[in-house]
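Kindly go through the entry underneath: sequence plus fold tokens. Please state briefly how this chain folds according to its tokens.
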Amino acid sequence: MPKNTLNRRLSRPLEKFSALNKQHKIAIAGVSTLGAAAIALSAIPGGATTVAGGTPAAKPVAAEQTTQTRDLHATLSSPLTSDKVKLDAIEAKQKAASKQKAADAAKKAAAERKAAESRSAKKAADRSAKRPQMETVAAKTYKNNLDGWIRESLDIMHAKGIPGSYHGLHKNIMRESSGNPRAINGWDINAINGIPSKGLLQVIPPTFATYHVKGTSNDIYDPVANITAAANYAAHRYGSIDNVNSAY
């Protein structure tokens, strides 16, 4: 076979192969272009449009992004807002419970205080009812004379349980001293012994000291003290000053 003919036969498959490769390249390039276009379209929001020359419109994309941002913000903030509302509600409930508790405590304390005051008032009323009512009595006054001295002595005697009467005291005073509180006996046996009788009822100092009534003066010449001590002595020795009709 001639060499040229062989070369032509060998070159035809190569040409076919080369043509096939070109077609494959064109197809692959087309697929790549379509893929890029699809990707570009998928990146454009659904509501976006294109302008002449295939360039996406910028303004609709920005509006769509703003809307999506707001939606995302709302989605993220909604749980936080809900939680804050719940926390505010819990805090308000706790404050209300605390105020109610304080009000209940104050009400209970007031009730207890009122009950205590009522019990105290009742006890005071009971004590007052049980305690005998004491009448206010003005201090008794006596005249500074024989009549006043006898009357004051009688009141003291009665308080101490010493018997005697006004008449019994008066008659013995008149016989012993004639009503002179400074009278003194300088001639009887007592005087001879150095212990003269003194005062309204002529009492010697040892007898006055022994039968002195507490609450009266310690001065033997004091009219009330002298009468009361003498009446006390007479009660112990004679039963009463009323039973004395002579020197004693």
User: Anything to note?
Assistant: The first helix runs from residue 3 to 43.
